[in-house]
UniProtKB/TrEMBL annotation:
A family per Pfam: 2-Hacid_dh_C
One GO cellular component, as annotated: cytosol
Superkingdom per UniProt: Bacteria
Keyword Oxidoreductase: yes
Key word Coiled coil present: no
Annotated protein name in UniProt: Hydroxyacid dehydrogenase
Amino acid sequence: MANPGSLGALPNDILTRAEVLVTGWGTQQVDLDLMQRMPNLRAVVHTGGSVRKVVTSEVLEGGLLVSTQAGTNAEPVADYTHAMVTLSLKGVFRSAEDYRSERKRIEVYDRYRVAASHEPTVGVVGASRIGRSVIARLRSSRLRILVYDPYCNDAEALGATEVDLPELFASSDVVTLHVPGTEETKGMVTAELLALMRDGTTLVNTARGSVVDGEALEAELVSGRIRAILDVTDPLVPSPDSALWDRPNVLLTPHMAGAVGPELAALGAGAVSEVQRYLAGKPMLHLVSAEKFARSA
């Protein structure tokens, strides 16, 4: 297994003999130049999710087999999202803020009363692997689930209603983002879409910070009109003087929705299983195609 950034520094006799490369976060990217030093390399088995920084499209199109644990890593992200959506719908973050501020008994049934006819609605942007896992978890609750994804053709089978972005943002109590960070999705959550969110609703982002207009989001959050749970921002770590750090209506987490702690063991086990399948002459189960690579985060 390669240590982060160390591939080019390995002795040539190791590089020339390597047939399978097991990578982790921060490993030097495998490009055409490195492939010339690794003539026997046939497969890259990545222990993480996205492989965009692990290999280039050229080596993938050249026939290199690339396996990812994106599916395994999607589960803790979906768990995180489901938990945050549930807590948001219950008003936990708002009530905790009020309780800390007032430091006295709060009559929760009066303060946070919601009309019995109101149907909680969650908008899922992106029917990706993670988006689908989130929808599957949400289906067990009495919720209306909306989904937007121009590539999705099975929304009804997922248990969701397909809508356009303006309707999703205007209708949802919680909007959760699950699209890759590509040129196509850069800034897709515009100031206009954020303005459609009703007062008191929540935006959850575990995708990529680049998919949101950061200035527009910060302006909405500073106004106090909406809430946000952000596991990612752009840049990934906000500047020390960013208004996001001190806003009571913002929960910032340090890009930890994916596997951390004991969850990492599943990624390692999955990668080992892929290597074993390769060595046994069996097809690996989690290969990345050129098409998937082009649309991946």
